[in-house]
Design brief:
Helices cover 22% and strands 32% of the residues. By secondary structure, it is α+β, with helices and mostly antiparallel strands. It has 2 domains: 20-138, no CATH class; 142-323, Rossmann fold. A hairpin with a 4-residue loop joins strand 8 and strand 9 (109-114). The radius of gyration is 20 Å and the shape is globular.
Length: 334
């Protein structure tokens, strides 16, 4: 498994001040800068903080508090490890290179103990890829490892293994006028009327330079990682979910076609593509599956064969938009 594979942060100005960051439909207040995340102007814009983050420094490798039992663990292919201690109202997440994050759910605060010389860009990635998704999960949301855009019928989300093209397809949709909703973490919640709503992440979408050029995006603002920000509008409020697409590569000359999944297959896809499913641990597996079964009953999910030819992306986007020019039906078949 790769570590937070699809979030791309831009270059960071070292003198950026501590600030408030618009993220996942709320505001994260932080006492130190977090590079690459959308800054909220220092004014009362009517948004309540999502969480408040304070950081202190401590020598030594990050570890859990003494006597705390680890309930879930992930070791990424790139080396860092993440462990979770689900301690009721004060859960801890320890990430081997960015520190310990202790959440106080009553006050909606996060105490971050950072190792010496921690990379604040890595802290930003871990907050939006691990820590906040876990906090949102505890609040009842399901965080899907996906990209999503707004279409006339609501939101369509794309899930796929790394490298198959979910971010690229989202970028092509943005080029066609769709507002970007999320990249890497798609936050879903049950809404009145048996529907699901999706909360915009607020995180910019970035592509490798060669991919950006291939989909018609100028690559003259590449950051230090060789990534280019995708231009376009960003959704600012929760929207109904229209469909989830499970992408699979197809020959370049193949027809772009979709097949709707059964409710059971949709539930399994939601579970296996959860952003933090593995971190939750075996003790939470039953609850996670039950949650996904409930969500699948409110979801249209399709297998979508996408031709492996970037020049055909505009026609794929046109097909998607044609499928979603009207509200989705109220329910899918079992």
């Amino acid at each position: 498994m790769a570590r937070v594979p699809d979030v791309k942060t831009p270059a960071f100005a070292a003198d950026q001040a501590a600030t408030r960051i618009r993220i996942f439909g709320g505001v994260l207040e932080t006492d130190r800068p977090l590079p690459g995340l959308p800054v909220v102007p220092m004014m009362d814009d009517g948004q309540s903080p999502l969480w408040a983050l304070t950081t202190s420094d401590r020598d030594g490798a990050p570890v859990h508090s003494e006597g705390v039992a680890v309930t879930g663990r992930i070791v990424y292919s790139s080396g860092p490890a993440v462990s979770l201690a689900d301690r009721g109202d004060a859960p801890e997440v320890v990430i081997s290179d960015t520190g310990r994050f202790t959440m106080q759910t009553a006050t909606r605060s996060i105490q971050h103990i950072a190792p010496p010389g921690v990379d604040r860009a890595a802290v930003a990635l871990d907050l939006i890829g691990v820590v906040l998704p876990y906090a949102l999960h505890r609040d009842g949301a399901w965080c899907l490892h996906a990209s999503a855009v707004q279409v006339p019928a609501g939101v369509i989300a794309f899930i796929a293994p790394r490298g198959v093209g979910k971010s690229t397809l989202a970028a092509a949709c943005a080029q066609a006028g769709c507002a970007l909703v999320a990249d890497d973490v798609v936050v879903m919640r049950a809404a009145p009327g048996g529907r699901l709503s999706v909360t915009p992440s607020g995180v910019p979408l970035r592509l490798h330079e060669h991919t950006a050029r291939a989909v018609g995006i100028a690559a003259d603002d590449a950051d230090g990682w060789g990534k280019v920000r995708v231009p376009g509008a960003f959704a600012t409020q929760a929207l109904p979910l229209a469909a989830v697409y499970v992408l699979s590569p197809a020959p370049a000359d193949a027809t772009c076609a979709r097949v709707e999944r059964s409710r059971r297959a949709a539930a399994l896809a939601l579970l296996t593509n959860g952003k933090i499913t593995e971190l939750l641990g075996g003790h939470a597996a039953g609850d996670a599956l039950e949650r996904c079964v409930v969500l699948a009953a409110m979801t249209h999910m399709y297998d979508l064969a996408v031709p492996r030819d970037l020049s055909r992306l505009p026609s794929v986007v046109q097909t998607l938009l044609a499928w979603h020019d009207a509200p989705s039906p109220a329910s899918n078949s079992a």
